[in-house]
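Researcher: I've got a protein sequence and the SMILES for 2-(3,6-dihydroxyphenyl)acetic acid. Could you write out the 3D structure of the bound complex as structure tokens? I'd like something to compare against our soaking experiments later this week.
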Amino acid sequence: MSSTLTDRLPTQADPALAPTPASSPDTALRYQHGFGNEYASEAVPGALPQGRNSPQRAPFDLYPELISGTAFTAPRHTNRRSWLYRRQPSVVSGRYQPYAQPFWTTGVDRAMAVPPEPLRWAPIAFDASSAEADFVDGMHTLAANGDAETQVGVAAHMYLATRSMDRRAFVNADGEMLLVPQQGRLRITTEMGVLEVKPGEIALLPRGVAFKVALPDGPSRGYVCENYGAQFRLPELGPIGSNGLANARDFLAPVAAYEEGEGAYEVVKKFGGRFWHAPMKQSPFNVVAWHGNLAPVKYDTVNFMTIGSISFDHPDPSIFTVLTSPSDTPGVANCDFVIFPPRWLVMEDTFRPPWYHRNLMSEFMGLVYGEYDAKPGGFKPGGASLHNPMVPHGPDEEAFEKASHGELQPRKLDNTLAFMFESRFRFVPTPYAMQNPALDEAYADCWAGLKDQFKP
Ligand SMILES: O=C(O)Cc1cc(O)ccc1O
Ligand SMILES: [Fe+2]
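Model: Sure. Here is the predicted complex with 2-(3,6-dihydroxyphenyl)acetic acid in place.
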């Protein structure tokens, strides 16, 4: 059944709308700028009520529906909600039945014995479980912590998707989803409109907002942070000042777009760690206008204003934080999303790669493209590494040798994008991850040759 999206030009009711930056590849798509703004968008002029949210009858007899991503009483600076004006409310649905998705797990698995040593995976391959899988069925949890019931922790997943979702939608009631594509673009249709992301860009999809994913480039792979905790937000900038790192204006939210075309939908819902599905007679992408500050957004990491040392020493990687999900303890994140983008290294008399270290925080890392300076050989795009609390790690032998003896000219680390999901909670790898042929049994050998070179 074919369907088209009505994506008419924005109207006066779109004050936040500005042209998409020239760097964007999305010629057909339009976006609104900003992070956590009061966005407003109409696919049909006049569809947004003015001056109130729920008039006795909304324009064009649309149904107003409020989606609250935070408690009604959350402090104003964290409060997120949007008003959707739709052809039918979301509650119009068939009955839910259990749905099988065995590779997508939720929260800490206390029965799992986690080795207290560094773990690393080669690129996770498309295997039998991902043949003929869409974004939902192709999701594979590599590691998770916390508990969706108590709204604590995150999971690190890898999607291995070969099929677009057609008349199938997904709703995650357990957490928001931060998508980090590694191979192939994703065209993400959401209740609030359509976003397209390519490797190097990220998408942040709010908890509870229905979406579906099409794959314009065919088989697609990438990483997902499913966040059961407080919503990701921009970090405080402290002495950095009022500009820098990820600037709010570079985040892009979609404009309202509703789907036309006939045919039933299947809605798959993740709810309390279990999966359910229900038939729907209508498309859930039936929102004609919306306003509010809860919205899916995308962000191109080329816009990250990277700050580093211009004197000496290697700074803590918190300087590369794009988004943070705080926990109840100040400064100790439920999860930080940190990137290692192209940048200049200019430090004098400094061992420039990461130091050898142990950390209270747990570090799940992935590589979108290029080489990571601490592991030039062994860490590959599409792979992953996991350094849990107090697990020692650092540059491999090759990186140590080069960085200890190389000439300290200014040097550009170019064509590289690694990232880290850093959490206060230990990541527990899944059986899928621990039994995966990509698990690098020889990871520890990359440090084995580091000799005692003490010369008193
Ligand atoms: O371990 C890693 O590779 C991530 C990391 C990078 C860095 O520059 C400093 C600390 C750190 O944990
Ligand atoms: Fe580290």
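Model: Residues 1-27 have pLDDT under 50 and may be disordered. The first helix runs from residue 397 to 405.
Researcher: Great, I'll pass this along to the crystallography team.
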